[in-house]
């Protein structure tokens, strides 16, 4: 419904949303949450089959977006590990490989993915939610933060590798559930009694992936970040955007995360 505009840029692919639902059988020692929780079972296999993904972690759960044309590959790749369902008229219906085969051919091994630089600004972030019925009470503040409080972004391609701070605000409303990521200073502008966070109230630091806008045809970007963090049992929320990817990790673990990712880059040279 958006009117055509020279200022509106739309990716040419149509994307489908995958929601990974736990069956409660994780190993007792598994404490990592967010994208690292599904790094080995979902992210890595899709990368190996050259499937490009967009990742959206929220306060409640994680969503993976895959291109519609890649659905046969996705089904064949994940069917051995997961029970897969599709939604039809509000009901969940089992999906089998035969339903989407359409002459499926196993893809050729993908070339080694591009190793993108990472940046870690000093900004501290909060991952929050609000009760839907209290949303009107903060609507004016949300509009101000989203559209009026920040100066226009500069040339992203020439961004410094040593960012002191970064402007980042994420708001998602999915099936009635609200998830917000904002920096700690912006949080102070909102009524504290309406913002809900985990009992620990922990703060998060960000790793931004990409020195210039990433390509939608690339694959393995999420896996390159998620797999090392999963191996170290470090939780991470991951948010893909039109230009860059962003991983949020607990503040106390940022030094270890940077070291792990630097080692990954050095070993890939």
Structure description:
Belongs to the GATS family. GO terms for molecular function: arginine binding; identical protein binding. The protein contains 7 helices and 12 strands. It has helices at residues 39-48, 71-78, 97-100, 135-147, 184-187, 221-231, 254-267; strands spanning 15-19, 53-57, 62-67, 85-88, 91-94, 118-119, 124-128, 170-174, 177-183, 204-209, 237-240, 245-250. The protein has 269 residues and is an alpha+beta fold. A hairpin with a 4-residue loop joins strand 2 and strand 3 (62-67). Strands 6, 7, 8, 9, 10, 11 and 12 form a 7-stranded antiparallel beta sheet that branches. It has a 3-stranded antiparallel beta sheet with strand order 1-3-2, with helices on one face. Strands 4-5 form a two-stranded antiparallel ribbon. Helix 1 runs antiparallel to helix 6 (221-231). The protein folds into 2 domains: 15-99, Alpha-Beta Plaits; 118-151 and 159-268, 2-Layer Sandwich (VC0802-like).
Short characterization:
By secondary structure, this protein is an alpha+beta fold. The chain has 2 domains: 15-99, Alpha-Beta Plaits; 118-151 and 159-268, VC0802-like, CATH 3.30.2130. Helix content is 24%, strand content 22%.
């Amino acid at each position: 419904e958006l009117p055509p505009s020279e200022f509106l840029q739309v990716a040419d692919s149509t994307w489908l949303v995958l929601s990974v639902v736990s069956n409660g059988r994780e190993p007792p020692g598994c404490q990592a949450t967010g994208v690292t929780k599904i790094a080995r079972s979902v992210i890595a296999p899709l990368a190996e089959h050259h499937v490009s993904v967009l990742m959206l972690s929220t306060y409640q759960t994680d969503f993976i977006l895959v291109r519609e044309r890649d659905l046969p590959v996705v089904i064949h790749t994940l069917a051995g590990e997961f029970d897969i369902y599709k939604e039809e008229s509000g009901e969940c219906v089992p999906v089998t490989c035969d339903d989407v085969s359409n002459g499926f051919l196993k893809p050729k091994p993908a070339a080694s993915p591009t190793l993108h630089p990472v940046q870690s600004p000093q900004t501290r972030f909060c991952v929050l939610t609000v009760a839907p019925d209290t949303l009107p009470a903060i609507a004016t503040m949300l509009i101000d933060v989203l559209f009026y409080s920040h100066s226009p972004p500069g040339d992203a391609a020439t961004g410094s590798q040593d960012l002191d701070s970064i402007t980042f605000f994420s708001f998602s409303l999915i099936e009635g559930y609200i998830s917000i990521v904002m920096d700690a200073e912006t949080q102070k502008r909102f009524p504290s009694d309406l913002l809900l966070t985990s009992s620990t109230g922990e703060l998060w630091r960000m790793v931004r992936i990409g020195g210039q806008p990433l390509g939608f045809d690339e694959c393995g970007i999420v896996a390159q970040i998620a797999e090392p963090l999963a191996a170290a049992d470090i939780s991470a929320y991951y948010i893909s955007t039109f230009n860059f990817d962003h991983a949020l990790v607990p503040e106390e673990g940022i030094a270890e995360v940077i070291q792990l990712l630097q080692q990954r880059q050095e070993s890939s040279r």
